[in-house]
Amino acid sequence: MYDASLDTPLTEPELRTLEADYCSWGDTVHYLDHPKFFESCEGSYMYDAEGRPFLDLQMWYSAVNFGYRNPRLNAAAHRQLDRLPQVASQYLHREKVELATLIARGAEAKFGRKGRVHFNVGGAQAVEDSLKLVRNASGGKQLMFAFEGGYHGRTLGASAITSSYRYRRRYGHFGDRAQFIEFPYHFRGPKFMSKEEYGHLCVQRFARLFETEYNGVLDTKTGEAEFAAFYVEPIQGTGGYVIPPRNFFIELKKVLDRHGILLVVDEIQMGLYRTGKLWSIEHFGVQPDVLVFGKALTNGLNPLSGLWAREELINPTVFPPGSTHSTFNANPMGTAVALETLRMCAQNDYETMVAEKGAYFLAGLQDLQRRWPQIGDVDGLGLALRCEICEADGYTPNKPLLDRMEAEAMKGDLDGGGRRMGLILDVGGYHKNVITLAPSLEISREEIDLALRLLDELFRRCVTG
Fold first, then answer.
1. pLDDT (mean) for 215-233
2. How far is Cα 18 from Cα 30, in angstroms, rounded to an integer?
3. What fold is seen in the domain 4-62+350-464?
4. Tell me: the pLDDT tens digits for 398-414?
5. Which one, of 92, 184, 340, 150, lies nearest residue 84 by Cα?
6. Which residue of 91, 297, 338, 388 lies most exposed, with the fewest beta carbons within 10 A?
7. Is the pTM of this model over 0.90?
């Protein structure tokens, strides 16, 4: 029965009471005791009910790479809404075919392999589809390799290859299982090694698993491995924007190819020029067998995700119609916006722009690090940047300090140069002590300078205050 009392705008306290009574908390993340309500957004900013701006340095976990209410992408959504907003997935529409063609031809040009594109609605759903794909290609193998610190989603299958046990603790495992392998997290790795040496060591430790049958992953008589695929984020997302050395994936791929194990690259968070390349794996010189994407493809306007896989894994004779399905996969609203996103990217030099802005932001973070010993590590690739918060020794993880900083940033009373404002930060890392910075790719230098000033103010308040 409809409740007419909800027709009258409710106050924030009333909304909080209703949220406490009627909303599942299982579909959200409550970092703060009282999560912020927002009323509007534009560019790099979110606005509360009083119109107070909050500079967003996480952009909906990298789903809104091209800025809130991007005029060009919003216009594409409006055009599609007025023409063909819906169509059942057993029929075709031009946006699906054109988008799949653009992605597949682009992948063929980059990776030298013909492939096909398969759509779904969310990143975890696309990961689930990829699990079906690699199980099918491997004759039903259910074991996967994945990285410590890796994150691939919280559906049943995706959580099985996500290294955080807490995401599956209550639910057990469903089919697929993962063996988690050390990722070259150099800041917390061996101090006597260079980043490249540590990456090589991690590969050698992995390769050792295939030395004898007693290492547990290979039948040495047949040469067959028990594992179907290795799931990787080229740059770890939730793990804290950890950037591996450039030699790492080249060496890892040689081991995988030697033993017939597929490389599945998760680009859900780092794709669409977050790192200065369309796909972040391009920085590392290897060819994926499967590539999963989502988030920023539609700039967060409509759920759309998908995967690209090489032809022999996904052609209709081996992966036939109905292998996976969602009512809303390849939906025309999402595919229309995604097409416009790729057109916009082709017409603008995001590689150069993101590289320049990222270098400028990273230099500013390094300057902060020189002034605040509590910043143990900063790093970045494009506009995927990390700032690891530590004790004054510059190494011991300091989650309480970052928690205070995040709460202080959300009060909305930082000095924005004549106006009071807030700062939206994302928390990641193995110890939940890393600020993972994913600003809009359209962020201006002035906004980067503002972000650095606000971060400096947060340190002054939370370290010395």
1. 95
2. 16
3. Aspartate Aminotransferase, domain 1 (3.90.1150)
4. 999 999 999 999 999 99
5. 92
6. 91
7. yes
